[in-house]
Amino acid sequence: MTLGTLPLRELLDVANIVMLFLLTVFVAAVWLGRGPSVLAAFLSVALFDFFFVPPHLSFAVTDAQYVVTFAVMLAVGLITSHLGARLSEQTEQAQARERDTRVLYELAKDLGGALSVGQVAEVTKRFLGGVDLDVTVLAADVFDGETTFQEYGRHLTELERNFARSANERQAIVETDSLAGTGVAIVFLPLRAPTHVRGVLAVAPRTDDAESVRSHRPLLEAVASLVALTIERLHYAEAVRHGELEVAAERLRTSILSSLSHDLRTPLTSLVGLADTLVQEQPPLPERVIETAGIIRDQAHSMHHLLSNLLEMARLQAGNIMLNREWQPFEEIVGSSTRLLSIPLAKRKLEIDLPRDLPLVYFDAVLLERVVCNLLENAAKYSRDGARIQLIARVSENGFDVAVCNDGRGFPEDRVDQVFELFVRGEREPAVAGTGMGLAICKAIIAAHGGTITAENRPGGACVRFTLPLGTPPVMEEEAPS
């Protein structure tokens, strides 16, 4: 720069020559960085003084005003070098971020096509292999409150698994730089997804340099986030698939039950009719034939009841049940139910506790009668002769509460929460005949009414309670006297 401006010393003003030196400092800052540009700033002041300030070829200054020129020139040069170097650094950082964003986009695109955690691990291993890092994906599986890991990649040592458990439990990155060069993972990143921690990403350098891992820390955190989101997506996709399969299986089972129960009821009705005809035949048939016909009739009645339950359950599970609800007294349901079950309840002590001031309740009479009949029938089945059965109704802050209790063995403690499931019975090997549909039907009917039903044991027996919403019954207008 100095050699280029020396021939112009007599042609250009000193201020213009200063500007040329400052331009050199700026170019050095942009292309060479902060250090060379600072050196260029000091050299520019020195060379300007030596070659262009009288007396020439000397650092002596005859005019004190040039001291101000040197100071301003040096200050502007240093500021320019700082700003130019900062601009260059920011440009490089932006380009680096652009490269990282581009490679992370490619990684996200590859992970989006993964259909299993194994494929996720393969994509991640291939990606981080480009920066000389080995990776193992540990997918977390929680069962009964205990977390286990499924490893995808290099087999980890027990020490590495302990670090992985620590990262998973603390939900924080665990670094073990002191183990660098031993061939084990030194960084463990938790795979934090929006809902749960889905596992751990264990990273090991392929060289003995731990700094190579530390320098890629932001990239590793971004990779861990993408892997966590992908594993969570696969988890929920699997859950949806299982849900769809369960819904399809339930729909198929309901359809089969409905079809079978409907098709079998007609021949059973004919069988009951034929058995009754044999029993009532005139002149009377031999006693043995009549007894056999009576057994056939009773068994056909039982089968008809079973098929009715199947058909009812299929209709309730299909979700197309139409409730014929009206405001009516619960006492009428109790009366009709006890009349229908007069024979099963004849050898039990039935206690009915209904307050006189019970309000009208909004329900489907036919379906609620089915619920009360099922509960009373179960209470009679699972109690001895002479045992007490209680039917209690009360109004509470939760709604209209009804409880049916009996004196007996109660429900097995480990099956109380399962008795309302279809085909589940209160005992594992009950001596009493049944199908395990009665309480399931009760639960479906009560749920259709917007209520709840529970089962519980009490000292000396068991209780099943259900609650219906009360609502506000219509006001009954009194007729005016004629």
From TrEMBL:
Keyword Methyltransferase part of the UniProt annotation: no
Q: Gene3D superfamilies from the xrefs?
A: 1.10.287.130, 3.30.450.40, Backbone structure of the membrane domain of e. Coli histidine kinase receptor kdpd, Histidine kinase-like ATPase, C-terminal domain
Indicate whether Ligase appears among the record's keywords: no
PROSITE patterns referenced in this protein's UniProt entry, alphabetically: HIS_KIN
Q: What is its main location?
A: membrane
Q: Which reaction does it catalyse?
A: ATP + protein L-histidine = ADP + protein N-phospho-L-histidine
Keywords of this protein's UniProt record, alphabetized?
ATP-binding, Kinase, Membrane, Nucleotide-binding, Phosphoprotein, Transferase, Transmembrane, Transmembrane helix, Two-component regulatory system
Q: Which residues form the Histidine kinase domain?
A: 259-472
An example Pfam family from this entry, by short name, is: GAF_3
Highest taxon of source: Bacteria
What's a Gene Ontology MF term here?
A: phosphorelay sensor kinase activity
- TM segment ranges: 12-32, 38-54, 66-85
Subcellular location(s): the record lists:
Membrane
EC id? 2.7.13.3
Any single GO CC term annotated in Swiss-Prot or TrEMBL for this entry: plasma membrane
Record's PANTHER family? SENSOR PROTEIN KDPD
User: How is this protein positioned relative to the membrane?
Assistant: Multi-pass membrane protein
What is the source species? Sulfurisoma sediminicola
The entry's protein name is histidine kinase
The first-level EC class reads: transferase
